[in-house]
Design brief:
Layout (H helix, E strand, L loop, with lengths): L2 H4 L1 E6 L2 E6 L10 H15 L5 E5 L6 E3 L20 H11 L4 E5 L2 E3 L1 H8 L2 E4 L4 E3 L2 H4 L5 H8 L4 H10 L3 E2 H6 L5 E2 L2 H16 L3 H16 L5 H15 L2 H11 L10
Parallel strand pairs: 2-3, 3-5, 4-6, 5-7, 6-8, 7-10
Antiparallel strand pairs: 1-2, 8-9
Bound molecules: ligand LCV.
Ligand LCV binds next to helix 5.
Length: about 260
């Protein structure tokens, strides 16, 4: 198996597929290679009689995923989260997959990985889980599709606090805000998630698939005037072309605190 394919291990048992993110050295950072492996794994599962997918990190991981691979972000003069970005392709693959996808979360979830778990159909987490969205740490203008994912899922005051502080939200607060469907003790996380999956795996798969797709198209397709979209893109371009974005990337690469000047 190629190195890339090993970044996501696939196990199928009783029509339930478990996909495990396996890049511990980089804290499951969402590299192009890992995301291509995730997309390929989902594609291969479509040809099998799989009824539910569980997306997880290895049991010993303290970081579920460190988010988008910062080293792979385009450095200026290019939209850092464009339609063809590997993360965006993976989000679409999950949202369009014809069975429920459960994010089983223990450990910390950062940046685009939060968008990833929110793109799953439900989240089961334990007390070690936390969730952070971090573009302001990098000076990066999040993309419109991504913001719509959050707007469709979380209260605006919570969205603003999470985006403007980049502070990780602890598991119990994520449960209080209904970000996670279930918050269970670590020792019960796997058993609870499997039981939830088994229940759904026994239901009529065609009905489940069509209801999931109806919910996707009804929530994803939000009309936006061309002029508004062009204004948004113009505003975002000024940010991803800014010195601050370059500073955010450099600070991460140089393992130091970023100093933003607003230029
Ligand atoms: C590349 C990494 C990463 C990483 N990329 O281990 O949300 S948005 O808009 O900002 C979006 C663009 C996005 O998702 O941006 C990324 C957001 N992610 C973060 O801000 C998390 C950055 N990582 C960390 O804060 C720490 O790595 C955590 C707290 C996750 C884990 O800390 P820990 O001390 O356990 P290290 O920091 O030592 O990381 C181990 C290796 O993984 C790399 C990191 O550079 C290091 O590589 P080296 O061993 O080569 O030094 N790594 C971690 N996160 N997002 N590479």
């Amino acid at each position: 198996m190629s190195d890339a394919a090993q970044m996501v291990s696939v196990e199928v048992k009783d029509r339930i597929a478990t996909l495990t993110l396996n890049n511990a050295a980089k804290r499951n950072a969402l590299t192009r290679a890992l995301l291509d492996a995730l997309i390929a794994a989902l594609k291969s599962l479509k040809a099998q009689d799989v009824r539910v997918v569980i997306l997880r990190a290895p049991a010993d991981a303290t970081v579920w995923s460190a988010g988008h691979d910062i080293k792979e972000l385009p450095h200026g003069h290019e939209d850092p989260l464009g339609y063809a970005d590997p993360l965006e392709r993976a989000l679409r693959a999950i949202r369009e997959f014809p069975t429920p996808v459960i994010a089983m979360v223990h450990g910390t979830v950062w940046g685009g990985a939060f968008d990833l778990v929110l793109s799953c159909d439900m989240i089961v987490a334990d007390e070690t889980a936390s969730f952070a969205i971090t573009p302001v740490n990098l000076g990066l203008p999040y993309n419109t599709t991504g913001l719509l994912h959050f707007i469709g899922r979380l209260p605006m005051n919570l969205i603003k606090e999470m985006f403007f502080t980049a502070t990780p939200l602890k598991a119990e607060d994520a449960a209080r805000w209904h970000i996670v469907n279930h918050l269970v003790p670590s020792a019960e996380l796997e058993g609870f998630t499997l039981s939830l999956a088994e229940g759904m795996a026994a239901k009529a798969p065609l009905a489940v698939a069509v209801i999931k797709e109806q919910l996707r198209v009804l929530t994803d397709y939000q009309p936006i005037a061309a002029q508004v979209f062009e204004r948004i893109q113009d505003m975002r371009r000024k940010v991803y072309d800014s010195a601050d974005f370059q500073e955010g990337i450099n600070a991460f690469l140089e393992k130091r605190k970023a100093v933003f000047t607003g230029s």
